[in-house]
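Saturday, quiet lab. Running sequence design on the structure tokens for the scaffold JK sent over.
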């Protein structure tokens, strides 16, 4: 989903009342400190995620107001208080807790979630950082364990996600928009959906998202994906991440998908791309602040006559500072004319316990370069492993001759955007990894493969010898991108797109959800009822192999009760063959069966199948079989199902993308070679293609039943048909034309997502919902039977 395609369709209504957006974040945007005095609590901006929080702040205005729910994190204690820093300290209860909550809510529109130390550690340091974060960045775990630690961390992840969801539900009011942020809270959307079915929920994943081959390594892959699918809109930084998510849902969960999103058991989850930006005005003000200029002069005096390369990275396996240093060493080796003329200032921050090991390796690599190419007067690499102050940071970005940002995998590194803002005067080139999240929108940067040391070395040389005219042209293009795609634009785009998806769902909702009260009222008063059900995908979940679709026990019990009601004539009208229907449903004598989409029929209380297609020409089957065989041989996982009056090609077990492609090719082949010559039609089902005689369909069976009843006993006064795919549209069409039955007593029901165009008058989202409706009707029949016996 590209928001630029439709945002212009959603103008801001300045007259509409202010609406609320509730943000659910892993942490609040503030560090909390207990003062131990009259001013009990103080709040300072938290390091990290500055772009996200800038976007959230930008939504506060005439149209929206925001509320942020987030973890309190580590609560700091001022020295005057005489206590220890801790997470959720035991003394924080009662009045102190109320005072903290009230002060945050009144001053900053925030509500803190206070977690115990064990849950916080198991959630963030455990599952998030040891399981999800490495996997999302294409790092597979090396340590094999017995799974106990992983189970504990998963339990903590679920517990904390549930705590966030519960707090949001407490704060939610009708009409609120919910926005969940990042991979720490991937289960929250579905947890909220379970309690607030009609809520408007958005999820934005700030991290990268791996391909399905990587993601399927996660033991809890299905739970994570289903948690995310509770959202109406899932947003990612790049198109590749969005595409990976859709593909993963298709391959891991078996869901149907389109380029716009994923169909999840009757709920369509839209997927979109929303590259985050920075608060350009704030960055511009900070780089121009009085404290920056003196530091620029100090750095210039320290490195007089030298070209300055700058890098700032978190010290982890994703940023791969070691590779950057190896590339810089390659640069000094391949371009000896730059020795003693170029310095690399590399700033790193610690993020995990593993950072100490990496810092040691980085220091060794820097020492090696300095020992090889340095001297008493010159040190080529300056490595600073600590958090630098904003004034120092902006001074460094402003004076640099080039920035070298070569992460091997990244969600969205805003350092590159901040560098562009700080280079309005110098126009220094940006050397950026093509694997970074910002690479897709920074086409005027020098894009490099971080694994190609010689290529990075060449890019450094190209940046240093670049003409002033080319520098200015490249910088102008980058600056235009940064200033137009800000954090505010990102946040507003996502919220407007979320509103759009809700409006789109309403527009596409051609068919209302079944009104059970209306259905049961008509059912109770009727004297003669016709109930027609499809099998696969309607009363039994669709399975990957046809033979695995065993009828659920609760469905069979309800079906038997319906058949035992003398007022009912119950039919299963399926694409299955006679043997399959007899095997699973033949033990119900009062049930009518129709096989192969109406080709065969067996009336209730009989054992004989009647061939309704015996006079049809079947000479077409040989030609169709040849075509199906051709595509079966070339599509691994596909197979042919032979029926007496039809042939079906299944590709549910094939690769989802390739299977769909081959099905389209096969359909085109059939249409060109078969349809124009023979009296058959092609049915496009769920992961299958079927060819059958054109004179045979489910609608003909329903029409046969309606006519027979009209001739024999005055007709039906209640009709219900229920199905999930295109083959059932014939049933819906025939019932809609039944003039002898009042329209309010005809219930044609489509099973599946509400946005599908259909002739049915109602829809139910899932097989489970169909069974529940059957049970409700069966309960009415059972009650009536008891009353009659009394």
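Result came back. Writing it out in full:
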């Amino acid at each position: 989903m590209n928001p630029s395609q439709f945002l212009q369709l959603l103008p801001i209504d300045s007259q509409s009342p202010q609406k609320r957006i509730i943000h659910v974040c892993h942490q609040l945007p503030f560090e909390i400190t207990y003062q131990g005095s009259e001013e009990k609590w103080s709040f300072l901006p938290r390091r990290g995620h500055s772009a996200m929080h800038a976007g959230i702040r930008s939504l506060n205005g005439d149209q929206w107001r925001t509320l942020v729910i987030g973890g309190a994190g580590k609560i700091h204690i001022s020295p005057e208080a005489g206590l220890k820093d801790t997470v959720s300290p035991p003394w924080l209860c009662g009045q102190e807790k109320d005072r903290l909550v009230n002060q945050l809510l009144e001053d900053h529109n925030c509500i803190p979630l206070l977690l115990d130390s064990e849950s916080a550690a198991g959630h963030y340091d455990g599952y998030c950082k040891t399981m999800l974060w490495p996997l999302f960045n294409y790092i597979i775990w090396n340590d094999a364990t017995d799974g106990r630690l992983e189970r504990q961390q998963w339990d903590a992840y679920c517990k904390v996600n549930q705590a966030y969801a519960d707090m949001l539900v407490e704060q939610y009011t009708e009409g609120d928009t919910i926005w969940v942020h990042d991979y720490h809270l991937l289960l929250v959307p579905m947890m909220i959906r379970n309690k607030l079915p009609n809520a408007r929920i958005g999820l934005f994943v700030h991290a990268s998202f791996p391909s399905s081959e990587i993601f399927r390594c996660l033991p809890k892959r299905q739970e994570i994906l289903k948690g995310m699918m509770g959202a109406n809109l899932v947003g990612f930084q790049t198109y590749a991440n969005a595409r990976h998510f859709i593909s993963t849902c298709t391959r891991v969960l078996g869901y149907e998908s389109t380029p716009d999103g994923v169909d999840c058991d009757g709920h369509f989850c839209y997927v979109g791309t929303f590259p985050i930006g920075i608060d350009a005005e704030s960055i511009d003000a900070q780089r121009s602040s009085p404290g920056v200029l003196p530091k620029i002069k100090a750095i210039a005096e320290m490195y007089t006559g030298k070209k300055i390369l700058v890098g700032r990275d978190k010290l982890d396996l994703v940023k791969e500072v070691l590779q950057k240093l190896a590339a810089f060493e390659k640069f000094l080796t391949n371009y000896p004319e730059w020795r003693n003329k170029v310095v690399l200032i590399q700033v790193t921050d610690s993020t995990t316990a593993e950072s100490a090991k990496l810092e040691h390796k980085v220091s060794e690599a820097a020492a090696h370069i300095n020992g090889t190419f340095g001297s008493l007067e010159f040190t080529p690499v300056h490595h600073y492993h600590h958090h630098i102050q904003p004034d120092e940071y902006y001074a460094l970005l402003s004076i640099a001759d080039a920035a070298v940002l070569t992460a091997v995998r990244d969600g969205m590194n805003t350092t590159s955007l901040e560098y562009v803002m700080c280079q309005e005067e110098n126009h220094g080139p940006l050397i950026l990894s093509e694997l970074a999240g910002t690479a897709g929108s920074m086409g005027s940067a020098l894009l490099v493969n971080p694994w190609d040391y010689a290529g990075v070395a060449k890019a450094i040389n190209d940046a240093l010898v670049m003409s002033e005219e080319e520098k200015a042209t490249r910088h102008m293009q980058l600056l235009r991108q940064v200033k137009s795609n800000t954090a505010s634009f990102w946040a507003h785009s996502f919220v407007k797109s979320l509103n759009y998806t809700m409006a789109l769902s309403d527009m596409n909702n051609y068919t209302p959800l079944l009104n059970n009260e209306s259905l049961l009222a008509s059912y109770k008063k009727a004297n003669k009822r016709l109930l027609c059900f499809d099998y696969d995908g309607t009363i039994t979940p669709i399975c990957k192999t046809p033979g695995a679709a065993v009828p659920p026990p609760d469905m069979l019990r309800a079906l038997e009760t319906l058949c035992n009601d003398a007022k009912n004539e119950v039919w299963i009208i399926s694409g299955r063959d006679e043997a399959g229907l007899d095997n699973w449903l033949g033990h119900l004598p009062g049930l009518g069966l129709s096989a192969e989409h109406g080709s065969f029929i067996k009336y209730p209380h009989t054992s004989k199948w009647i061939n309704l297609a015996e006079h049809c020409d079947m000479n077409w089957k040989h030609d169709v079989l040849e075509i199906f065989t051709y595509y079966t041989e070339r599509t691994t996982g596909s197979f042919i199902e032979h029926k007496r009056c039809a042939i079906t090609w299944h590709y549910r077990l094939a690769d989802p993308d390739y299977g769909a492609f081959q099905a389209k090719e096969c359909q085109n082949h059939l249409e060109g070679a078969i349809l124009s010559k023979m009296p058959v039609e092609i049915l496009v089902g769920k992961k299958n293609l079927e060819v059958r005689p054109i004179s045979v369909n489910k609608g003909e069976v329903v029409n046969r039943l309606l006519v027979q009843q009209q001739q024999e006993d005055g007709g039906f006064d209640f009709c219900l048909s229920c199905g999930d795919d295109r083959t059932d549209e014939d049933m819906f069409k025939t019932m809609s034309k039944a003039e002898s039955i009042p329209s309010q007593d005809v219930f044609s029901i489509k099973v599946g997502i509400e946005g599908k165009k259909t002739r049915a008058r109602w829809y139910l989202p899932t097989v489970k919902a169909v069974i529940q409706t059957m049970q409700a009707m069966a309960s009415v029949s059972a009650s009536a039977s008891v009353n009659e016996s009394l």
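Notes for JK: The first strand starts at residue 19 and ends at 27. The two ends are 61 Å apart (CA to CA). Ask whether to fix the surface positions before the next round.
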